Amino acid sequence: MDELKKILLAGVGSIAYTYEKSANVVEELVEKGRLSVDEGKELSQELKRTFKDKSEAFNKKVMPLTKEDLKNTFEEMDFVSRDEFNDLREQVTKLEAKINAILNSLE
């Protein structure tokens, strides 16, 4: 679950970083006189709207994930469930006990 959270946060972070860099470029163009102040404001507003729309679209795709959606995704990726892991752990413990019993009987 932490890995999925990291992936989602990385996506959001990259959107924020791209917006920040784009805003800096617009500001720089205004400072250099390549864009008027009004053009810069308009472009900044357009960037803000675009990134807000993209962010909302991203959230609509990602946020509705239910526990069942995640379970299905993990199954498709052949992740082991906690129950399966615990069963395997129990089997390993039993096998270790058998091996130790065999080794002790050989001594």
From TrEMBL:
Q: Taxonomically, which superkingdom?
A: Bacteria
Name the UniProt record assigns to this protein: Polyhydroxyalkanoate synthesis regulator phasin
| Species in which this protein is naturally found | Clostridium cadaveris
